[in-house]
Amino acid sequence: MLREGTTMKGGWCCKKSRPPEIERNIKANNQEYNAQFEYANNYICTSKYSIITFLPKNLFEQLQRIANAYFLGLLILQLIPQISSLPFYTTVVPLGFVLAVTGIKDAVDDFRRHRSDDQVNNRKTLLLRDGKLVEEQWQKVVVGDIIKMENNQFVAADLFLLSTSEPNSLCYIETAELDGETNLKVRQAIPETAEMSDDNEKLHQFDAEIVCEAPNNRLPKFEGKMTWCGESHSLDNDKILLRGCVLRNTQWCYGLVIFSGHETKLMMNCGKSVFKRTNIDRLMNTLIIGIFMYLLSMCLICTVASGIFESAINHNFQDYLPWESFVPGTSQGTKEGSVEEGATVISLLVFFSYIIILNTVVPISLYVSVEIIRMGNSLLINWDGKMYYAPKDDPAKARSTALNEELGQIEYVFSDKTGTLTQNIMEFKKASINGKAFGDYLDKEGNPMDITDATPTVDLSWNPIAEENFEFYDERVVQEIRGGNKHMHEFFKLLSLCHTVMPDNTDGKLSRTSNSITIEVQGTEETYDLLAILDFDNVRKRMSVIVRREGKVKLWCKGADSVIYERLDPACHNLQELTTHHLNEFATVGLRTLCLAVKDIPDSEYAAWSKKYKEASLAMENRDDKVDAVYEEIEQNMRLLGATAIEDKLQDGVPEAIANLANAGIKIWVLTGDKQETAINIGYSCHLLTDEMEEVFIIDEDDFDKVRDQIDKAISDINGYKSGKRGNDQVDQVTFENGLTPSGAQYMKSDESTSVVGESEFALVISGHSLAHCLKPELEMGLLELGCLCKAVICCRVTPLQKALVVDLVKRNKQSITLAIGDGANDVSMIKTAHIGVGISGQEGMQAVLSSDFSFSQFRYLERLLLVHGRWSYLRMCKFLKYFFYKNFAFTLCHFWYAFFCGFSAQTLFDPYFISFYNVMYTSFPVLIMGIFDQDVDDYYSTKYPKLYYPGLVNSLFNKKVFALSVTEGVVTSIVLFFIPYGAFYESIGPSGVDNADIQFFGVVVASILVVAVNLRCALDTCYWTGFSHFFIWGSIVYYFCFIMAFYASVFNYSYQGAAFAVFSSGKFWLTLILTNVILLVPVVAYRFYVTNINASLSDRVRMKQRLTKSKARTKDLHVRRTSTFRRSARSFRSGYAFAHQHGFAELITSGLNMRDRVASTLRLNSPVTLTNVRKRIDSSSANVDKKSTNGATVHVKPQHPNSVDNVESGEKFVYSERL
């Protein structure tokens, strides 16, 4: 089924204008009463157009885009004969193509919406009318009706559940249409209405009055109360069935319609989503404005020159070229005036004429081409088999097609931990019970031992309902339980009672109803009256249940240690210290912990509290705050029982992915709800934190001033490290000017060669309490500065709101692209805040996926998404834009140069049809293929050398400077294209004595050379050749020549008839074509040869290595040899001698130089590394080596060739470099 309303835009077809609701009043089975409020009916209309309104409304929407409106204005100018030298179809063809493609897409989308609306509105449901069930269409349902639904039926409207077929008035619903989750959720009717069961007569007489909240889009919240038979009952979300849900495993149920039609929560959530724009989009908008100003400047030059030419020269030749009759001073005598006045009028008309002629510098096809390329790259992501997760049959999905190239520019990644870095599959491992730790495997003497695959687990065969796959190693737990230990029994009773699990069968001994829970304790059933559930949320960070058994009322509570400790009885102080010690031990091995507490409640205290709780739950204003205050009142002075420790294992490939992303220069911030020690341990496990880091700063104070002092001190320490105040290394900084890039280094933009400056790495860990202070305006910039100085940041105990605020802080204040990745509903705000949101389809449903721009099943796929698809998309888009602007300027400026030879009369050089087809047929497909398929290196090398990602971080492949160079190249190309053929055919005469210098002949010559030149230029830009590349590049050239020969043939009787044959039969044309292309392309080839061989980038070197590897593979020699700086002996391969036959490293070892960090950092590179001791002293007079003092020393190493490795020994200083 198509999801309802997911494409809703604009107004609703059935919505009436009425005052906004504050609260809703409903009487069951009373349509007359409910009709006075004019509530919306159940008819929905999500479509935008009808047959009559489609054309005008769609055109109006499309013309709101600046580019389309601009070309419409040009079309209007072309319809004015006095200023147009081009026929109108030169603009109609490209504009019509763009509008038609977009219009067809919109029409198809809207047709689907119409079909979906009809399907939904005409569904059948059973309505209770006059005591009888009547089948009606959904669109005829109104507020106040009672509906009967059967198993597997969709819920027609938002309903208040009255009764069900299941015991305890339960029903099960699937909410995939709302939140993407396929797991069933439980709803329960209140006992008072459940008694009506399926008695239609009782249901018909049901006359309760409902007062509830006004329509809103809050899916997990509902506040209301029902008054019936003089009593009031609280209504919340657990008693509501929302439109879009499906009834499952329930034979039937009855519900009262609360919200219908467009006022249901589902439809209220179908508003227009926020459109995200990429950096390149914003840059293009700026560049288009600049291009337009450039266009105006060219038109002004032609205008001034035309005025001068007309007044000085052309007015004397009116016998041959008379001015128009409306021009002052015309020789026709129709209008009097001076020559200057006439020249002024003509020049003003010429201004608009040249706007029409030169309009192609503002390319209308640019936006359409960009969308096609983005769609193609999105499909490549969707079809990537290496991002397909077979166990869940879940491929990667690009849910947004507008952000692909921004994946190649990500500098900050904000990640959730649970379910994103970990599997979100919890296993009970350890526990602290009454101050005693359990969970380790102990020997006979009671000493803990390491757990291996051979370690025996606890024998639970005596328990018939024990889980078979449960692994636990501490026998003492079983002994204490079977021995009747009171504290042990209380501990596990809390775990059995304090939850919201609803068993779907009674095979086990755990069962529950709406007001009771039954458990089995060592063969004996115990039933507890369930008095209240104090539910968990991200602010409370705890949940409690209040139960009664044998007349005793108890509160059982579990939650985070920080909130439980605040609510303990002072008598638990000693036990709290022991438990805290155990919690820290559990956290250091990466286990997640919860604290457990209990409280005995006197009957009188509970009775008073229960009254307050009922009043708060019936409140229609600030219900949540009032209920939380009542919860807080009862959850005090609790007795600590202990703590649980569960394991949530890392997903496969997470450490490697994080390490590779970090090597690419991407900074990773982990935002987790775990406690600090657990987060730090997981940080080390996933290589977010490493032993090579200079220091890990911890911000954990609760006081505002102390937090500020910690931040200031950390910033000062980092600056001290970087300035060398605390460094002990004698060589502080090494700069490689050949572009070699050791791991753990920072790129510096100096000149065209990329330098690398080694630096110390830092990390930051910040607690939830401290983060709350840091996000205040006074400290947020300090937090940002400190976080940006660190390679990794971990925020602990954060709420969903704090996650979004941290992302927003970086997004607002840094000129960097951010990405947020998560798997649960608590990550949605963070995902929506970041530039790009990625959803993990894990164990917590699909809400994160539905809010994301990209989705997949495993965190490790993020590495491939960014380093492969993101980098490729950015590279392709940058190449496309550079080439697109180049070819358009090369094409358009030929008209500008021709203006100097036609008296600035706004005459065109090219055939009008050529002008229309140039960007549509002759040059569009090759650049589209390049923008979809091109790649500098393959996916293997893209991940093996993560430093290839760096150009995207600094936006070096397409910016204003690159744009200016592309425009300059286009201008130079236009000069060559125009003047070389002009010189070649100046006063030229063909073999038959016919003059070859007419405008049509010359225009075809320049156009033909232009098509060949720009397509060959595209071929030079193409790094990855596919069958499509060959077909469209060479095919575009062949197609042009074939089409022009056919179109200019006599059969069409076109004005250019015979021009193509005359040109192509001239040997001078072919010589000119070759000469012009050689002049245009040889400098490009020479420059690239120089760059590749003399000043090669990392991409060039990796590409060369890739080619060599493939070449060796084709010759059956899979071993790629490289020059080695080790001198190996020519000894026999049979020798068993274990030592290398060369000079050793004793001098290095005894020198005292600490090489650990550098060696460790180089080992993180996947490329081979050579360490060589070269016997060469550094001489201050050497031309190739610069030397400074040892305090903050900087040694510049200039290898003789970019692919060579020079190593220098100076006293006790050694410099080692890396190479591919």
Automatic annotation (TrEMBL):
<dbReference type="Pfam" id="PF13246">
    <property type="entry name" value="Cation_ATPase"/>
</dbReference>
<feature type="transmembrane region" description="Helical">
    <location>
        <begin position="884"/>
        <end position="906"/>
    </location>
</feature>
<dbReference type="InterPro" id="IPR036412">
    <property type="entry name" value="HAD-like_sf"/>
</dbReference>
<feature type="transmembrane region" description="Helical">
    <location>
        <begin position="962"/>
        <end position="984"/>
    </location>
</feature>
<feature type="transmembrane region" description="Helical">
    <location>
        <begin position="1069"/>
        <end position="1091"/>
    </location>
</feature>
<feature type="transmembrane region" description="Helical">
    <location>
        <begin position="345"/>
        <end position="368"/>
    </location>
</feature>
<feature type="transmembrane region" description="Helical">
    <location>
        <begin position="912"/>
        <end position="933"/>
    </location>
</feature>
<dbReference type="InterPro" id="IPR044492">
    <property type="entry name" value="P_typ_ATPase_HD_dom"/>
</dbReference>
<keyword id="KW-0812">Transmembrane</keyword>
<keyword id="KW-0479">Metal-binding</keyword>
<keyword id="KW-1278">Translocase</keyword>
<feature type="transmembrane region" description="Helical">
    <location>
        <begin position="1031"/>
        <end position="1049"/>
    </location>
</feature>
<dbReference type="InterPro" id="IPR032631">
    <property type="entry name" value="P-type_ATPase_N"/>
</dbReference>
<dbReference type="InterPro" id="IPR006539">
    <property type="entry name" value="P-type_ATPase_IV"/>
</dbReference>
<dbReference type="InterPro" id="IPR023214">
    <property type="entry name" value="HAD_sf"/>
</dbReference>
<comment type="similarity">
    <text>Belongs to the cation transport ATPase (P-type) (TC 3.A.3) family. Type IV subfamily.</text>
</comment>
<keyword id="KW-0460">Magnesium</keyword>
<feature type="domain" description="P-type ATPase N-terminal">
    <location>
        <begin position="26"/>
        <end position="92"/>
    </location>
</feature>
<feature type="domain" description="P-type ATPase C-terminal">
    <location>
        <begin position="849"/>
        <end position="1094"/>
    </location>
</feature>
<protein>
    <recommendedName>
        <fullName>Phospholipid-transporting ATPase</fullName>
        <ecNumber>7.6.2.1</ecNumber>
    </recommendedName>
</protein>
<dbReference type="InterPro" id="IPR023299">
    <property type="entry name" value="ATPase_P-typ_cyto_dom_N"/>
</dbReference>
<dbReference type="Pfam" id="PF16209">
    <property type="entry name" value="PhoLip_ATPase_N"/>
</dbReference>
<dbReference type="InterPro" id="IPR001757">
    <property type="entry name" value="P_typ_ATPase"/>
</dbReference>
<keyword id="KW-0067">ATP-binding</keyword>
<keyword id="KW-1133">Transmembrane helix</keyword>
<dbReference type="Pfam" id="PF16212">
    <property type="entry name" value="PhoLip_ATPase_C"/>
</dbReference>
<dbReference type="InterPro" id="IPR023298">
    <property type="entry name" value="ATPase_P-typ_TM_dom_sf"/>
</dbReference>
<dbReference type="InterPro" id="IPR032630">
    <property type="entry name" value="P_typ_ATPase_c"/>
</dbReference>
<keyword id="KW-0547">Nucleotide-binding</keyword>
<feature type="region of interest" description="Disordered">
    <location>
        <begin position="1180"/>
        <end position="1211"/>
    </location>
</feature>
<feature type="transmembrane region" description="Helical">
    <location>
        <begin position="999"/>
        <end position="1019"/>
    </location>
</feature>
<feature type="transmembrane region" description="Helical">
    <location>
        <begin position="286"/>
        <end position="309"/>
    </location>
</feature>
<dbReference type="InterPro" id="IPR008250">
    <property type="entry name" value="ATPase_P-typ_transduc_dom_A_sf"/>
</dbReference>
<dbReference type="InterPro" id="IPR018303">
    <property type="entry name" value="ATPase_P-typ_P_site"/>
</dbReference>
<feature type="transmembrane region" description="Helical">
    <location>
        <begin position="86"/>
        <end position="104"/>
    </location>
</feature>
<feature type="transmembrane region" description="Helical">
    <location>
        <begin position="63"/>
        <end position="80"/>
    </location>
</feature>
<keyword id="KW-0472">Membrane</keyword>
